[in-house]
Amino acid sequence: MIGGGISGLAAAWYIRQGADERVKVTVLEAASRVGGKLHASEVAGVSVDAGAEAMLARRPEGAELARAVGLGDDLVFPGTLRSAVYSRGELHGMPKGQVMGVPADLTELARSGIVSPAGLLRVPLDQILAPTLVRTDVSVAAYIRARMGGEIVDRLVEPLLGGVYAGRADMLSLEATMPRVAAVARAERSLLSAARHLVAETPKDAGPVFTTLRQGVGALPEAVAKASGADVRTGVTVRELHRTEHGWRLVTGPVPRPETVEADAVVVAVPGPAAARLLRAEAPRAAAELSRIEYASMAVVTLAYPLSAFPRPPATSGYLVPPVERRPVKAVTFSSVKWPHLARDLVILRCSIGRVGEEHLLQRDDAELVSLATAEMADVMGVRGLPVDSRVTRWGGGLPQYNVGHLDRVARVRAAVAVEPGLAVCGAAYDGIGIPACVGAARTAAGRILDHLSQRGE
User: Which of 77, 143, 379, 433 has the fewest CB atoms inside 10 Å of its own CB, making it the most exposed?
Assistant: First the structure.
């Protein structure tokens, strides 16, 4: 296993479940710890996630893995899912009845105040406009703007996508990021009517949308690593990958003193650029495609305030900020409201900074990023005074961009890898950046390796 993020560790766990006990599973991770973007550390004495802080509960792979490795009793659910959007100078509640920002209820949209009266009047024109025929993948912005106007894109869809991908709606793939909307775009004339159907299809008793672990999802990687029984080696960078007569040779260690590891099969579970370098010699077509996946960088500034610093305690799980507002902070999560087990006598929150095209913001030092976050809290929430503790976590090149054509690119990568026996890929660059999607991709990769080992009689 090359890569000790949740994808590589999950793949190791799945292989261990299906392989003969004689099979040895090794995980090689370049960093000093496993987990990748899943990591928790203390802020004001409270364990708070520094990267991803939740996983979809309605997609089962993540929670199922947590239960399988002994963390089932630690799964907790949000205290509230009410969120807001900062639009035109103030906070507005997120309208009910929407699909990734695409409105299904005009009354709720009007009540929210997020879009202007002119923007609101533009939406129902969708029902009388000529069909927008979608035959190939298009950008999210191109399709939704054509149907519902620019304000829906700028003030609802854009901040929601930015919160997930740190990307731009005019570049992100409709097929890859909003598959349910893409499906209706190919078949329905009216996006508004289709959105109403999509909302109506969601079961009323579907349960919570998100879940996390009491000590943070940063606790999941270590638990999976332990349960996998794998030989996990940190601080080991794999620099080269070569096919041999009987399997694969991995070249690790410093250039002057290289070391090799022989393996019957390999799962490459690292980000796109690193995967491209490793696959260049043996799977050049896959490497070429992976090298074209762009990545966004961001920083998460975690702040802890005394309750008395807020004129009114936050009542929502957080808020999103559209790029058109031109503010450095793109999203705020009130962690101690969203996850009540964190509350104690503090307000703990996370400010996300950085989207594609905003790399200049991340060139500031940690103290400046904390200042940006505290200024955001003073301006929007009326917070008085300074936080009692803070933490800055930078995720350079941390978020793959699912730009137009992404699904076709992933299909070409997998086709190129499929002809190489004993080789599989998984990670956030392929089928989704959330924990359940990464775990699902890891299970698929593990299945491919298990099939290969069974054919060899191992």
Answer: 379
- Distances from the Cα of 391 to the Cαs of 199, 352, 354, 362, 374, in angstroms? 38, 12, 16, 15, 12
- Locate 75 and state its tokens: 């799964």
Render pLDDT for 309-353 as a digit per residue (tens, 0 to 9): 999 999 999 999 999 999 999 999 999 999 999 988 999 999 999
Q: What is the pTM assigned to this prediction?
A: 0.94
* 69 Cα distance to chain centroid: 22
Based on the fold, state whether residues 227 and 347 are members of the same structural domain: no
Residue at a domain's end among 201, 229, 249: 201
Beta bridge partners, 422, equal none
Residue 252 is assigned to a structural domain of this protein: yes
HSE of 31 in the Cβ direction (CA atoms, 13 Å)? 11
The Cα–Cα gap between 374 and 222 comes to 33
CATH number, position 170: 1.10.3110.10
The count of other CB atoms within 10 Å of the CB of residue 19 is 17
Distance CA 340, CA 336 (A): 5
Dihedral sign from CA coordinates of 250, 415, 277, 226: negative
Q: Which of 201, 230, 262 represents a domain boundary (last residue)?
A: 201
Q: How many residues does the chain have?
A: 458
What proportions of the chain, in percent to the nearest 5, are helix, strand and coil?
Answer: 40, 25, 35
Query: What pLDDT, in 10s, does the model give residues 110-124?
Result: 999 999 999 999 999
Contact 140, 172 (CB under 8 A): yes
- With a cut of 70, list the residues of the chain below it in pLDDT: 205-206, 457-458
Which residues face 243 on adjacent strands? 248
Half-sphere exposure for 338 (CA within 13 Å, toward CB) = 25
Q: Can you read off the two tokens belonging to residue 269?
A: 């579970």
Q: Give me the DSSP letters along 69-115.
A: TT-GGGEE--S---EEEEETTEEEEPPSSEETTEES-HHHHHHHT-S
Token couple for 106 = 């005009």
CATH classification of the domain holding 344: 3.90.660.20
Q: Which domain holds residue 390?
A: 295-400
310 shares its domain with 359: yes
- Cα separation of 212 and 140, whole Å? 29
Scanning the structure block, which residue is given the tokens 């997998």?
A: 414
Domain count, the chain: 3
The two counts, helices (H) then strands (E), for the chain are: 17, 21
